[in-house]
């Protein structure tokens, strides 16, 4: 519903259209204050960080690199 209003605003800017866009964005939680007002909380994922996964060699990319190093005779580091 909001995308056509934004498109219309960029084609023909009007004050009343911008007010409607800002109202809708606020209801969607566009800013930190909007999220506080709506009691929206954002929690980080429970999984480990990417750096920790990479250090442990758990990612497929690291496994592929290790396998390539072995094939090339350099061993895994």
> Helix/strand-derived class?
mainly alpha
**Contiguous helical run count:** 5
Strand percentage: under 5%
Number of strands: 0
What is the H-and-E element order? HHHHH
Instruction: Compute the separation of the termini in Å.
Output: 53 Å
Roughly what percent helix? 55-70%
Mean pLDDT, all residues = 82
Poorly predicted ranges (pLDDT <50, ≥5 residues)? none
Shape: elongated
Radius of gyration: 24 Å
Biggest sheet details: none
Explained architecture:
It is elongated, with a radius of gyration of 24 Å. The chain starts with a helix and ends in a 5-residue tail after the last helix. The chain contains five helices and no strands. The relative contact order is 0.07. Helix 1 packs antiparallel against helix 2. With 77 residues, it is mainly α. It has helices at 2-11, 15-27, 32-37, 50-56, 60-72.
What's the helix and strand layout?
Layout: H1 2-11, H2 15-27, H3 32-37, H4 50-56, H5 60-72
Helix pairs in contact: 1-2
How would you describe this structure in keywords?
mainly alpha; 64% helix; elongated
Please sum up the structure shown.
It contains 5 helices and no strands.
